[in-house]
Recover the amino acids of this structure.
């Protein structure tokens, strides 16, 4: 990660410690994760303990302290999605991508995540790919959605 980018993000918030959450969100959006060097630079620039920055980065599940793929595939496992087949969707993705939930493909293309609920219960089962919601997902629909990410239909 280029620390110049971190400096630019911190500068946009005038190095205000109150903007820590927004700063981390911007870094995460740009890098898809929070590298250790970025966290240390943010602490230095905001003149706050690095433990404060790590505390915020680990409190919110949306932040990742390990590299994530170019594409983020999230499956909702809330009650409504669960009873409509979300666990089978996760199993299929794990087979097709050759990773377990919480992992990233070897080529760093896709990170597969699960969440407890996204509050879109009427759409279950629900897959969120790069921020786009795909509701009432089936195996066939899932293949079509993932085709855009993998460049081919999953079998």
């Amino acid at each position: 990660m280029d620390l110049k980018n971190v400096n630019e993000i911190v500068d946009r918030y005038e190095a205000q410690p109150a903007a820590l959450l927004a700063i981390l969100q911007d870094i995460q959006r740009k890098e898809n994760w929070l590298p250790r060097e970025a966290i240390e630079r943010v602490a230095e620039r905001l003149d706050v303990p690095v433990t404060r920055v790590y505390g915020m980065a680990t409190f919110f599940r949306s932040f990742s302290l390990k590299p994530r793929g170019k594409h983020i595939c999230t499956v909702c496992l809330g009650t409504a999605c669960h009873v409509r087949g979300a666990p089978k969707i996760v199993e299929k993705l794990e087979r097709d991508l050759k990773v377990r939930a919480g992992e990233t493909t070897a080529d760093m293309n896709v990170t597969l995540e699960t969440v407890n609920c996204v509050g879109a219960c009427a759409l279950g089962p629900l897959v969120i790919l790069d921020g786009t919601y795909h509701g009432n997902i089936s195996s066939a629909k899932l293949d079509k959605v993932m085709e855009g990410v993998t460049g081919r239909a999953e079998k």
Observations:
- The chain has two domains: 3-59, 71-150.
